[in-house]
Amino acid sequence: MTMQRNPGAAKPDLNRAVWRKSTHSGSDIDCVEVADLGEVIAVRDSKNPSGPHLMFTSREWTAFLSGVRGGEFDLA
Question: What are the extents of the domains in the chain?
């Protein structure tokens, strides 16, 4: 899989993002947070909320979640 960038694409407005994290995370700040921006899904590190964000299309995010649920990324 190769990463692709689309420099001509409009950047999503992260100011309107509603960030969520798993209820299993507790109150720690060592979490991954996710925001559904409609056209893309944004992912960030809760320790560095103003740092870089990963952006995924809905199709990419759905494929990732399917892999997680199916044990595709389990280490054991």
Answer: 31-76
